[in-house]
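> example.struct
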């Protein structure tokens, strides 16, 4: 889906602030509630098996844009998990808001998913490919800034993974091949872009050999 979460290549947000935790030993949690909130992900996905990680990603994508932009990483996880707990019938929204002591905004409703396409002939390192220029209103792992763009396969991953358009909506599907595709920045953003390359992980179902 083309939502507020898909910010790759979007201008106006400034530099990405980051740090290497392994170098600075900076804790990944910044408030006492965050580890507990994060643990709800594993409770729902692993212990109770109520949802998949793809479904959680899609729940976060379905947050109201203003809420998404004003929420921290762990805030979004809590909202996504809570939304799925309500949607899967593990708790009612009324009970959730009773426990929260007030209104608890949840993700917007989801729509139907897409069944995975049959596995294509495997691509090889060095193959030139073009990403589908397609729009889907549900969950996808095809970033908007690479749609319709040409790149080169630089690695074929060993493991296969569930097709996001199906898995993000609770549909069963066989794991599919994924590839590391390298793009020239000028192909992505025009001649004004700095000379560089970007590598994006993409499912084979998103790619056509050219």
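> example.seq
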């Amino acid at each position: 889906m083309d939502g507020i979460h898909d910010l790759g290549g979007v201008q106006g947000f400034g530099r990405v602030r980051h740090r290497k935790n392994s170098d600075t030993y900076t804790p990944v949690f910044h408030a006492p509630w965050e580890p507990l909130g994060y643990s709800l992900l594993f409770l729902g996905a692993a212990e109770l098996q109520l949802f998949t990680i793809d479904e959680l990603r899609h729940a976060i994508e379905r947050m109201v844009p203003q809420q998404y932009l004003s929420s921290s990483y762990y805030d979004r996880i809590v909202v996504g998990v809570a939304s799925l707990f309500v949607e899967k019938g593990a708790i009612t929204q009324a009970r959730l808001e009773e426990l929260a002591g007030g209104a608890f905004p949840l993700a917007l409703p989801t729509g139907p998913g897409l069944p995975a396409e049959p596995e294509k002939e495997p691509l090889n390192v060095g193959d030139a490919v073009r990403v589908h220029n397609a729009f889907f209103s549900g969950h996808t792992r095809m970033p908007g800034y690479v749609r319709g763009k040409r790149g080169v396969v630089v690695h074929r991953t060993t493991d296969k993974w569930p097709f996001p358009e199906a898995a993000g909506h609770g549909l069963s599907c066989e794991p599919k091949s994924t590839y590391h595709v390298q793009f020239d920045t000028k192909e992505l953003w025009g001649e004004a872009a700095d000379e560089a390359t970007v590598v994006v992980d993409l499912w084979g179902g998103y790619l056509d050999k050219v």
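> remarks
The radius of gyration is 19 Å.
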